[in-house]
Amino acid sequence: MTQQAPFAVEVPATTANVGVGFDCLGLALDLWARFTFETASETAIDGCPERFRGRDNLVWTSYVDTCHRLHEEPLALHVTIESPIPLSGGLGSSSACVVAGIIAAQVLHSGAMDAARALDIACELEGHPDNVAPALLGGLVSSFVDGKRTQTLRLDVADGVRMVAIAPPYEVRTADARKVMPHEVPLETVVWQTGRAIAAVHALEVGNLDLFSRAARDRLHEPYRAPLIEDYAPLRRCALAAGAAAYLISGSGSTMLAVCAGEEVAARVERTVRCMAEGHLDGLWTRVLPVSPTGALVGEA
């Protein structure tokens, strides 16, 4: 053990798939969860809803799993979670917890964060890199797993791109979202998806949202998952009518993203969606979010 002083790990919210990049593309968003760690006489977790304060908390289980990989004995910790990331799903709230627990183990037992190793461990725990890679690296990340190593390509997104996050007050379980996916797809769908995925990445990098609007028309998962989000269709129509360039399901939902050119358009889309929902959809959460160029950070508590 090399450190016992309290410290904090900050992890950005993330969105996976980015439309046509199913299980491959992810974005870090400028909305941050903060996790404070302090050695203690017995383990305690606070700052989160009561149902998440047990030993099955993802921060704690990820910390313990990483300790085992480091051949270290887990310490009793006081963990405080301050997270504005909606729990309804789609903005990487669980991935943020996993990443925080892994980094805590590295800091406490190895002395520093190792992003590359953290990513490999996170992919083993999560099963896929689409959220954890941008959570650790920031920006737009394309990932694939080669054996036990995660290969990533990180890109910066043009400054003017804004995401309007739209989270209804209900969840879509990832297991349910996986069940509705087809087990096989036609060759023409693969060709459609591949070309558009490459174009979508370039469009975000250079800020060409006209191109992104044409490229981000997914055929692999969104047509099957949209019916699981009860308010998908009216919210999509509203956002596009207000000027959004594209409308995406974030991860497996229920959060959705309206992709906008600039702060002014994004503010108008967010305001319009929120006004439309008043009196019809209580508890709708909306936020204008830039892409975060940085991933997880370690600092003072």
From TrEMBL:
Class of the enzyme per the UniProt entry, highest EC level:
transferase
Q: Which InterPro entries match?
A: GHMP_kinase_C_dom, GHMP_kinase_C_sf, GHMP_kinase_N_dom, GHMP_knse_ATP-bd_CS, Homoserine_kinase, Ribosomal_Su5_D2-typ_SF, Ribsml_uS5_D2-typ_fold_subgr
Asked whether the UniProt record includes Zinc-finger among its keywords, one would answer no
Binding positions for ATP per the UniProt entry: 86-96
Listed PROSITE patterns:
GHMP_KINASES_ATP
Compartment list: Cytoplasm
One GO CC term, this protein: cytoplasm
Output the Gene Ontology terms for molecular function: ATP binding; homoserine kinase activity
What this chain does, per the entry, is described as:
Catalyzes the ATP-dependent phosphorylation of L-homoserine to L-homoserine phosphate.
The record's family statement is:
Belongs to the GHMP kinase family. Homoserine kinase subfamily.
Name this polypeptide is given: Homoserine kinase
Organism phylogeny: Bacteria, Bacillati, Actinomycetota, Coriobacteriia, Coriobacteriales
Gene, per the UniProt record: thrB
